[in-house]
Amino acid sequence: MSASAAVGEDGLNRASVSDGVPIAPIDTIVIMKLLAGRAHDLADIEAIVSSGADRGFSRAAVQHAAPQGADTLERLFDNVDWDR
């Protein structure tokens, strides 16, 4: 199973449900967007961080599930701080 498939499966297992639609946890969204790595995905992560998402929780989740994205996540945190 690929890393993104494993992350997606975990996210669905932990998803909350709203009106019958599963909603992936924020950490799952951040990890999947990091793995995708497209410009708009990275911009989405910056928006999530800017909205007040718990950086420590995101950092720990990335370190566990996709450690290769840890440096990119830190750079995105820095971008958000720079824009403030």
Describe what you observe in this structure.
Helix content is 71%, strand content 7%. The model has no long low-confidence stretch (mean pLDDT 93). It has 84 residues and is mainly alpha-helical. The protein has five helices and two strands. The longest helix is centred in the C-terminal third of the chain and has 14 residues, at 70-83. Strand 1 and strand 2 form a beta hairpin.
Portion of residues in helices? Answer: over 70%
The largest β sheet comes out as:
2 strands, antiparallel
The value of Rg in angstroms is 13 Å
Q: What is the SS-derived class?
A: mainly alpha
Q: Which runs of at least 5 residues are low in confidence (pLDDT < 50)?
A: none
Gross morphology: globular
Instruction: Calculate the terminal CA-CA distance, rounded to whole Å.
Output: 39 Å
Major sheet: order of its strands? 1-2
Oligomer: single chain
What portion of the residues fall into strands of 2 or more residues? 5-15%
The structural domain count equals 1
Give the topology string: H per helix, E per strand.
HEEHHHH
- Let me know the number of strands: 2
